[in-house]
Amino acid sequence: MTGTGYPFVVKELKRAQSLSEAREIFRGEPTDSETQPLVLRDSEGHIRATGAVRAISSFESEYVVFRPDRAVKLKLPKKAEIVTIACGRLLVKLDEDWTPSEDSRFTAGSVISYDLDEWKKDPLRAKASLVFQPGPRQAVSELTATKKFLILTILENVQSKAFVYKYDHGAWSATPIPLPEQTGVSLSVTYDEADRVKFTVSSYLGPTSVWYFDAQSKRLEELKKAPSASDASNHVVEQLEATSPDGTSIPYFLVRPKNAKFDGAIPTLLHGYGGFQIPLLPSDLGPGARLWLEQGNAYVVANLRGGGEFGPQWHQAAQGAMKQTTWDDFIAVAEDLIRRKITSPRRLGVIGGSQGGLLVGAAITQRPELFNAAIIEVPLLDMLGYTKLGAGAYWIGEYGDPAIAEQRAWIEHYSPYQKLVAGKTYPGPLILTSTKDDRVHPAHGRKAAAKLAALGQAYLYYENIDGGHSAAANLREHARQLALEYTYASRRLCSE
Predict the structure, then answer these.
(1) How would you class 50 by CB atoms within 10 Å of its CB: exposed for 0-12, middle for 13-18, buried for 19 or more?
(2) Who's near 92: CB < 8 A, 6+ residues apart?
């Protein structure tokens, strides 16, 4: 196992063999994050290559393919991912700029492809060509192969669009798939033996639906729609922007009553994440948030740097030494909500889990006067000790290593546990965690609660025995968690 607790040895095990008979075929390094096997299959199910992937860090990898005589390390940038085989070509997604030759240059966020036969013959000399290059407000979301086509979804200003790509006569052509607009789209099922795919389409107010698309005939049909759990006719979704201290525009979605009076009196929950290149897209807010909205309140989703809403650059702008940028963006959205008189510090609460729990912890320790409620779910909070807790060492690529003096300095600047100090009044947070959380150790939440108690500060703490990183093992426990959170939010933000 690596220092992060994941394997770095790849073995081959054949049918009917015992585990002790497995033959080692590749070994990474103990300092890697992990090493995994690589198997590349075409749409016919034929294996076209095997190898291994060394995750050097959370976001950097090296690819090795097994040749008859040796293992060959591929000439790809460290921030790149081999995704699939489509249309007889090998697809690679780039998370950094790459210049493989003097006459060939690709920008971060692009998708490139190789002729599979040429690549198999000599993977070090095969020439890549461009499939998709994102614009300034675009990012690749998902891509998958059907029998004859490539299906690609992108984000454009944090809203999903889908395309079917075909490779013919040495070039890619794209045709839009007319799915509903202003939604979040995810690929749910792909049929690689045919040219069919299913999408899950969701939005903040509409019910989630499943759509079927035949790439050969271009037939698109809605198969199923979730029953409406609430009346959304009295609400509206707006996409607004706040300005962060460095001048960057930070988009956010505001879900509010149509007849809202902008007098600073709307109880508002502000949600964010801002990490690991994961975007927050339009989606079903869930039963708790729907009930929250039905009471005439507002819900906000902030698209912060550190996430993946605008591709790898958006993530890398708030990574490592620049992580404070995520917290600045979140605070800027809170201030913008107050400036627009949508809400006020008395009526504004924040909610987030995991990295989002760290986000909430940073917000209330840096600007406690902006908020009157904070729901902190399965959080990272002790950032000076996070690498020693649970799977924390795996995230050094996101935050930095507190064992290195220079990196410890930038982490110490915002680590919420260390920033809980006497002389400040915090917004009585509700901290929720799980005894069996094997991703973010419950010690983060426990230590923060104990420190708040030692400081004489108000707080609420709930630790579920089951549930892992979700903090709920079943629907009953999840319902209890939602009831705790929204009862807390109502008492803090809605009462007179």
Answers:
(1) middle
(2) 76, 80, 81, 82, 83, 111, 112, 113, 114, 128
- Identify which of 270, 287, 282 has the alpha carbon closest to the alpha carbon of residue 351: 270
Across the chain, mean pLDDT equals: 95
Residues 6+ apart with CB under 8 A from 78: 56, 60, 61, 62, 96
Which whole number is the average pLDDT over 137-148?
Answer: 95
What is the per-residue pLDDT across 87-135, written as a single tens digit (0 to 9) for each?
999 999 999 999 999 889 999 999 999 999 999 999 999 999 999 999 9
Q: Which amino acid is at 34?
A: E
Whole-number Å distance between alpha carbons of 21 and 50: 20
Check 160, 203, 209, 354 and give the catalytic one.
Answer: 354
Q: Are 165 and 154 in contact (CB under 8 A)?
A: no
| Model confidence at 229: pLDDT above 80 | no
Q: Is 434 a catalytic residue?
A: no
Span 147-158, mean pLDDT?
A: 96
Closest CA to 302 of 264, 323, 274, 340: 274
Instruction: Report yes or no on whether pTM surpasses 0.90.
Output: yes
Is 469 among the residues known to form the active site? yes
> With bands split at pLDDT 50, 70 and 90, how would you rate the model's confidence at 3?
confident
CA 98 to mean position of chain CA atoms = 24
Note whether 288 and 375 are within 8 A (CB): no
Asked if residues 329 and 280 have their Cβ atoms less than 8 Å apart, the reply is: no
Q: Please list the residues that pair with 73 across neighbouring strands.
A: 64
From 346, 361, 372, 495, select the one nearest 431 (Cα to Cα).
361
Closest listed residue to residue 42, CA positions, set 142, 119, 106, 112:
119
Taking every pair of C-alpha atoms in the chain, what is the biggest distance, in angstroms? Answer: 75
- Which residue among 186, 230, 344, 469 is the active-site one? 469
Give the whole-angstrom CA distance, residue 21 versus residue 100. Answer: 41
* CA–CA separation, 379 and 491 (whole Å): 22
Q: How many CB atoms lie within 10 A of CB 124?
A: 10
Distance in angstroms (rounded) separating the CA atoms of residues 369 and 363: 10
